[in-house]
Automatic annotation (TrEMBL), chain A:
Name of this chain's protein: Inactive transglutaminase fused to 7 transmembrane helices
Domain of life where this protein originates: Bacteria
7 transmembrane helices usually fused to an inactive transglutaminase domain mapped to chain residues: 274-517
A Pfam family matched in the record: Transglut_i_TM
The entry's keywords: Membrane, Transmembrane, Transmembrane helix
From TrEMBL, chain B:
SUPFAM superfamilies: Glutathione synthetase ATP-binding domain-like
GO cellular component, as recorded: cytoplasm
Pfam families: ATPgrasp_ST
ATP-grasp domain residues: 43-294
Lineage: Bacteria, Pseudomonadati, Pseudomonadota, Betaproteobacteria, Nitrosomonadales
Gene3D superfamilies: ATP-grasp fold, A domain, ATP-grasp fold, B domain
GO molecular function list: ATP binding; metal ion binding; ribosomal S6-glutamic acid ligase activity
Keywords for the protein's UniProt record, in alphabetical order: ATP-binding, Nucleotide-binding
Protein name: ATP-grasp domain-containing protein
GO biological process terms held by the UniProt record: SOS response
């Protein structure tokens, strides 16, 4: 019964601990190691212009909205004393800047940090099309055939006829048209058409206008290719045509289907455009840069965006100095586990049960070698002074208090002397738990008297050995990171400790102790 | 190493972890521990039940009472001072005689009134007690040792440790002080442990510092073959101690007095495992044999005989 209870409990602890950690890794995307960094794209749109005197200024800038394949981590607007409003509807989002009067050069900035969402490109492509389909009406109406100017009508009709003959469906039809319009040696008629339609910002829209002649629904999407250090004066346009079930994206320069890699969709439809009023000599510039950021920070931001509140209750939500305290505290159970292992599995004797853990914590600050030297120094001198106090025949508690006082004085003295010698490590001696040191001195001197120096040294070395082992485990940065980000893993440690609590096999030292009997 | 492990398992050696997990934590109720940890309580219980113990002369409970020492010992030339909560024989002071206001100790040292008072004060402040709790000092009858162990002990107090499991004595050893153990009877302090044949009460194999020995390291006398007197009485006494404190896994320490016969010195709720080395016999099979018994007879004599039968079989 007890055994079943115990195994169920440990199983529950392990499942809870590992399950929570697994959830955090897979759903929230917390990294397993501290050094993991993710690429963050910083995109920026800047509008610079000169204000017209005596005229109010209004600037409308389309903004990206949930670009497929990316998550916006943060955005900010830099617009000194301009009124800012952000409007959003199913066609997208715009920033509206307004100011009644302004003089001289003006600069408006929009900045956003994007992170790529890890999905297979096919899936993200699917998502992009489904999203854009969702943002417009689910099945777009077939456009009416536009009234083409009589001069261009025959050219367009010829173009459409030719494409119709060479294609099988909407997409290949549109591709043919685009190829034709981009051909390196266009016919004379085509040249006149191109002169009319191949204007920098309008080309995609005009292709859509031509395709409307074949009653193909189309829309223009604009966005940026993410390339480090690039600057663009305009967004790149792509044409989307509706094939009856979904939107297909086509490159307007070669007709290839699909968006290029690292393309961030900025603007859907051309219904919302960049508009500027009351300004002259204006220019708009888009720039792209990349930086590395800790995955953990990103996970925190994205999880709150996703509406997962777990991260809000993580240790990361504490003030930084408390975080640092917990980074250490969460390692203490591991030190305790080491003590359990060393005492119950190996069978090393120590002074006090958890004294080695406290010493190990102090070692973290002093560094191992100096920690050992300082520890031995204080214990050694403390023992000498304790031997003197013994002569005075003091009662137990005053004697302990006297030893404690001497330990504090010793620590202060060591710090001062070593500081004067230029050994800054001496200062960290203050981190030794002085009460524990005093108790250690007292117990060591008792054992020395009762069981001889051999036993006393055996126990002090045992304690130091366990402390060093604890220090080595507690000082693994990876583990420290793991337990801080996934504190639920302590449940697994707890399970291990509970299991070890029922270990009734031999200790390693008992194999030695009973070795005479093993020979028979 | 793994082979050693298997060999130990086969021999039925009980390790520290097994003792704690399978026996002490199962059979020894926590609430009963104070009865054996406090030697004063044990002694009062034993006296009530008619179990022979060294006579208590007096108790010193507070610092101020130390002045009362002379009054307590005025009728006794020799006596023993021990902490009520002591462990491992620490803090025990055996006074064999008095000389010009000084006390002669068993190791030959002469202590002044002041030094004895300081020793008692140390006892009271908890120097020798488990966990440093304030303690009491017991002043009691000094056992006049039966000469049976004279040749094989060096000063101090040879005693007989018996493990009593669920009221059945299952194994015993004689603990012989050496020069190394400083008169103390604890094996880890350097005393010799001699296994005892539970049926005959004769010493056989012996262990010193975890290794088998044949002769006492100080006196050089052969250890085996010594017949312990009053053996049946002694085993019965050990079995009786179980009823006294109701601890399932109990260590009973008995001394042999020249005039008074076996006296119970102290009880132990966490008896050590060296007894296995002294007897060259693992505890596991003995313990299991007792665990498998359906009923255990009530009279201590029958339990002593039962223990001997189990010892004989395994």
């Amino acid at each position: 019964m007890r055994k079943l209870h115990l195994s169920l409990l440990t199983l529950l602890l392990c499942v809870t601990g590992l399950g929570l950690a697994y959830y955090k890794v897979t759903v929230i995307g917390l990294p397993l190691t501290a050094s993991e960094q993710a690429l963050v794209w910083n995109i920026e749109a800047s509008v610079s212009f000169r204000a017209k005197p005596d005229s109010s200024i209004k600037v409308t800038l389309p903004l990206p909205l949930d670009p497929p394949g990316f998550t916006i981590l943060s955005e900010d607007f830099m617009s000194a004393n301009y009124g800012l409003a952000i409007e959003q509807d199913e066609n997208g989002r715009v920033a509206l800047w307004a100011k009644r009067r302004a003089q001289g050069k003006q600069l408006l900035l929009f900045r956003a940090a994007l992170i790529e969402v890890k999905e297979s490109s096919a899936a993200s492509d699917d998502k992009s099309t489904s999203k854009s389909a969702a943002t417009t009406s689910s099945t777009p109406a077939f456009p009416v055939v536009p009234q083409y100017p009589p001069k261009l009508l025959p050219v367009i009709e010829g173009l459409l006829d030719k494409a119709r003959q060479q294609s099988a469906d909407t997409v290949s039809f549109s591709q043919r048209v685009i190829e034709e319009l981009n051909s390196t040696s266009p016919t004379l008629e085509l040249k006149t058409l191109l002169q009319q339609i191949d204007r920098p910002r309008e080309f995609a829209k005009n292709i859509g206008w031509i395709l409307a002649g074949a009653r193909i629904p189309s829309q223009v999407i604009r966005g940026l290719r993410l390339e480090e250090g690039k600057e663009y004066s305009e967004l790149e346009s792509f044409l989307q045509v509706y094939d009856g079930t979904r939107w297909r994206t086509l490159n307007i320069r070669n007709g290839q289907e699909g968006l290029p890699e690292n393309f961030v969709l900025w603007q859907l439809n051309s219904s919302k455009n960049f508009v500027i009023e009351g300004a002259r000599e204006y220019s708009i510039k888009y720039s792209v840069g990349k930086t590395l950021r800790e995955v953990i920070d990103i996970a925190e931001i994205t999880s709150t965006q996703k509406g997962l509140h777990l991260m809000e209750f993580s240790l990361h939500s504490l003030p930084v100095h408390s975080q640092n305290v917990y980074k250490v505290l969460l390692m203490v159970p591991l030190g305790a586990l080491m003590v359990v292992l060393m005492r119950n599995l190996v069978g090393i004797k120590t002074f006090g049960t958890f004294m080695p853990v406290l010493i190990a914590l102090a070692f973290r600050e002093t560094e191992l070698l100096w920690g050992l030297i300082l520890f031995s120094l204080i214990i050694g001198i403390g023992l000498l002074l304790r031997a003197y106090v013994e002569q005075l025949r003091l009662l137990l508690v005053p004697r302990l208090a006297a030893v404690l006082t001497m330990v504090v004085l010793l620590m202060a003295g060591t710090s001062v002397v070593m500081h004067k010698l230029g050994l800054e490590m001496g200062l960290s001696v203050a981190l030794f738990p002085m009460v524990i040191m005093a108790m250690t001195i007292e117990r060591m001197s008792l054992i020395w008297e009762e069981a001889g120096p051999a036993e006393a040294f055996k126990q002090v070395f045992g304690s130091l050995l366990v402390a060093v082992a604890g220090y080595l485990v507690m000082n693994i940065d990876e583990l420290q990171y793991m337990f801080f980000v996934f504190p639920e893993l302590l449940l697994v440690v707890l399970a291990v400790i509970i299991l070890l609590g029922r270990y009734s096999g031999y200790r390693l030292t008992e194999l030695w102790r009973f070795r005479a009997l093993a020979k028979r | 190493m793994f082979k050693t492990w298997l060999n130990l398992r086969k021999t039925g050696i009980v390790g520290m972890n097994q003792r704690n997990a399978d026996y002490i934590s199962v059979y020894n109720r926590r609430s009963r521990f104070p009865l054996v940890d406090d030697k004063l309580q044990t002694k009062i219980l034993a006296e009530k039940a008619g179990i022979a113990v060294p006579e208590l002369y007096g108790v010193i409970e507070i610092e101020h009472d130390i002045a009362n020492l002379a009054n307590i010992i005025k009728d006794h030339e020799d006596f023993v001072i021990k902490p009520a909560h002591g462990s491992g024989g620490n803090g025990i002071c055996v006074v064999t005689g008095q000389l010009y206001d000084r006390y002669r100790l068993s190791n030959g040292n002469l202590l002044t009134q002041d030094e004895i008072a300081y020793h008692i004060s140390n006892i009271l402040s908890g120097l020798y007690s488990l966990g440093g709790q304030p303690d009491q000092a017991l002043i009691e009858y000094r056992v006049k040792f039966d000469p049976v162990f004279e040749a094989i002990s060096y000063q101090g107090v040879p005693d007989i440790r018996t493990i009593v499991f669920k009221g059945v004595p299952i194994t015993a050893m004689v603990r012989l002080p050496t020069r190394m153990s400083n008169g103390k009877a604890n094996l880890h302090q350097g005393a010799v442990g001699a296994g005892v044949d539970l049926i005959t009460g004769q010493t056989n194999s012996a262990v010193w510092q975890n290794f088998p020995v044949d002769h006492h390291p100080d006196t050089g006398a052969p250890i085996s073959g010594v017949q312990i007197p009053h053996w049946q009485k002694l085993l019965t006494l050990a079995a009786q101690c179980h009823d006294l404190v109701d601890l399932g896994y109990l260590g009973v320490d008995i001394v042999l007095d020249r005039d008074l016969g076996p006296l119970v010195l102290e009880l132990n709720a966490r008896p050590g495992l060296s007894i296995q080395i002294a007897n060259a016999k693992g505890l596991n099979k003995l313990l299991q044999a007792v665990e498998q018994l359906e009923t255990i007879p009530a009279p201590p004599q029958e339990r002593a005989a039962l223990g001997q039968a189990i010892f004989h079989k395994t």
